Amino acid sequence: MTDDVAKVLLGERVILSRLDELALQITEDYRGKELTVIAILNGSFIFLADLLRRIPLPVQVESLSIASYDGVKSTGSVEFRQARLADVRGRHVLLLDDILDSGLTVHAVRERLADGSGALSLRSCVLLRKSVPQIRQIDPDYVGFDIPDEFVVGYGLDYNERYRNLPYIGVLTDEAIRRYAR
Ligand code: IMP
Ligand code: MG
Description:
By secondary structure, the chain is of the alpha/beta class. The protein is 24% helix and 35% strand.
């Protein structure tokens, strides 16, 4: 699997020490508040686990399964795989996503949560932000890393459902991209 990685962009230690900083900031911002974290799956599952273990506050965890990517490209549409959102009345909501690219995913979730969900506040946190022109302008409240416009895998992010379990974030070889294209 690691032979398929052309370049490691963010090593495990770098990621985890940035999570220490993010978690500290989030802990200070939400102290004494009723916090619900909504993770956008599948991509954010490792980020969710590592981040939440660094936040020593009572927190409710929910998830949303969403797909918007096929191979290395956005499909341009956001597919919600479940009909109902969590009940967030009277709660402060923090949306968690692996990567902000076109902005379509976070925008779609924010729209659904904005309509009468009763949330007291709504913020978003992304591990990675790609430097690309966003289709939907999203200004996340918490950003782990700004990265160049490259397709990345690992630490939860996939290429056609592979490589999510790499402990670091890297760029694939062209050979691997071709091999697992569908
Ligand atoms: P957006 O809706 O275009 O902002 O894209 C967000 C979603 O697309 C992410 O949650 C990922 O699932 C997927 N995605 C975007 N860029 C990458 C990438 O470089 N590698 C893997 N998945 C990506
Ligand atoms: Mg995703």
